[in-house]
Amino acid sequence: MEQWLSEFLEDLQRRNYSPASIRAYRYDLQLFVQWVSRQEHLNTPADLTLSALENYQMHLMLRPSLKSKNIAKAMSTASRNRHTAELRSFFRYLKRVCKLLSNPSAELECARQLKTLPKTVFTVEEMAGLLEHIPKNTPCGLRDWAAVELLYATGLRRFELLNLEISALRLAEEMVHILGKGQKERVVPFRSQRQRGLERYLSEGRPYLVEGAHHRVFVSQHHGGPVSEEEMLQAIRRHARRAEISQVTGFHQFRHTCATHMLRGGADLRCIQTILGHSQLSTTAIYTKVEVADLKKTMRECHPREKDTD
User: Is there a catalytic annotation at residue 93?
Assistant: First the structure.
């Protein structure tokens, strides 16, 4: 089984899967391989039946995952479904290369997953305050200004921002070329009114930070190479504290904010889907639930019948 896994990972590499995706497959599928090795009744490939895979799903459901502060919590539905999807890919490969006569995962089902609302989004005033409190007189300040402006204006994912290259910027056309999840390409509008921070960073900030010949847009102040997630997020949080914004949960908060503010401004859901790079409209539609929550809050606070306690 270990050999099969190694060959599968090599196949993913040949098919141009990203290093991050391959690492995720390796980690998750090694858990499966280890589980199989502990099952006395799973001795041959023929023993890997649908029932055996369903038993593994149950094992994942009962297996605690360590979170922060070493508190054991049950593995989330999303994580279990990720494992299931990876198992399907693995067994499809084994069937394709004739390691197995049939694919036992063909009827393996994912658990039903409830769509959860995005976490806290920034208000328009908070975003204006954050951008205002980022210093514009240092290379790092210009970098952070450009990054926050780009996150808010385009809704980029974390890895899309950090991996963005100079060649992807088509500023004269008011466009940014994005390589998203699953190596899917999309073009996102980036209007000239929002480009000032990025233009100043590229001309006045990045040249003082960059070392070497790499072409990433955002550069570390410590070593001149591509900036890390941790360095960028810590910098943004420092600026947020100056603006008296207490909660910055991560890069996705800016993505949620971008989508929510566009929806409130009257943007069509299909347009938001295209900008965010969602493969399914149902993923984008979750932001309409945020709007319903806002409406309920307004109703409670403003409608006279809601205020009536009789």
Answer: no
